[in-house]
Amino acid sequence: MAFTLPWAALPAFLSAYAHAQLSNHTVDDGGADSFTGAMISYSNYTEWNFGPRCVACIAHLDPEKVHNHTWHDATYDGSEDIFSLPQNATFKFTGSALYVYGVISNTVDITGTSNTGISFFIDNESVGQFSHFSDGSNAYKYHVLLYANTSLPHKEHCFKLQNGHIGGSASLILLDYIIYSR
Ligand SMILES: *[C@@H]1O[C@H](CO)[C@@H](O)[C@H](O)[C@H]1NC(C)=O
Ligand SMILES: *[C@@H]1O[C@H](CO)[C@@H](O)[C@H](O)[C@H]1NC(C)=O
Ligand SMILES: *[C@@H]1O[C@H](CO)[C@@H](O)[C@H](O)[C@H]1NC(C)=O
Ligand SMILES: *[C@@H]1O[C@H](CO)[C@@H](O)[C@H](O)[C@H]1NC(C)=O
Ligand SMILES: *[C@@H]1O[C@H](CO)[C@@H](O)[C@H](O)[C@H]1NC(C)=O
Ligand SMILES: *[C@@H]1O[C@H](CO)[C@@H](O)[C@H](O)[C@H]1NC(C)=O
Q1: Which of 76, 80, 85 best tests ligand 3's pocket when mutated (most atoms within 8 Å of CB)?
Q2: What pTM was estimated for this model as a whole?
Q3: Where is the signal peptide, in residue numbers (predicted)?
Q4: Which domains does the chain have, with CATH numbers?
């Protein structure tokens, strides 16, 4: 008798197969997912700066040290009207693992903040936070893993990063790239 796979079992079979063949996809802060075309979306859009072209930004990174020479910069600061709402970066993907990378600042510039307080959400559920306090060394640290989740059910997910929180300390985010596995 020939081996036949019942049709009802096919989705489970394919899903198990997909798990065995995980591959990573890197999405740049300003680029598109080469697999789906999806991009990271920024809100409020006007409060996010495209790092390499931002004249007003205090953080001047080395383009050679970030992925694809680009990054996105935003500052939350409850004491300044125009920065007083936390900023979000949202990305939709289908996969079972997610890694989010950024740059952290250790400058001693008194006109800006080098501290960072970020919250992470997956499918509207709060899943973690990242905090950093400047050590005053004046050095940037590149390719810092801000958030990782390797235990996601393999399906479509909506990832959201929120920079700062209302009533909280000022926060600088320098977002570089996202990797997800599918
Ligand atoms: C995907 O990238 C992460 C972070 O670099 C790494 O830890 C993981 O092993 C990679 N997974 C695959 C399937 O290559
Ligand atoms: C690299 O950055 C540029 C400018 O943001 C963007 O147009 C391009 O798609 C990016 N490349 C990749 C591979 O993400
Ligand atoms: C984005 O900023 C504009 C102008 O400050 C404001 O009217 C709008 O409500 C903001 N949107 C969100 C989602 O906060
Ligand atoms: C950012 O996300 C938070 C949490 O989901 C939401 O309350 C807030 O309105 C969002 N802000 C913007 C500017 O999109
Ligand atoms: C997340 O919350 C927003 C606003 O409350 C809602 O429109 C959206 O459908 C929710 N998404 C998920 C995956 O629950
Ligand atoms: C990963 O995501 C799942 C589903 O949203 C969540 O239950 C879990 O706490 C997350 N794990 C980490 C390390 O954030």
Answers
A1: 85
A2: 0.89
A3: 1-20
A4: 23-181 (2.60.120.260)
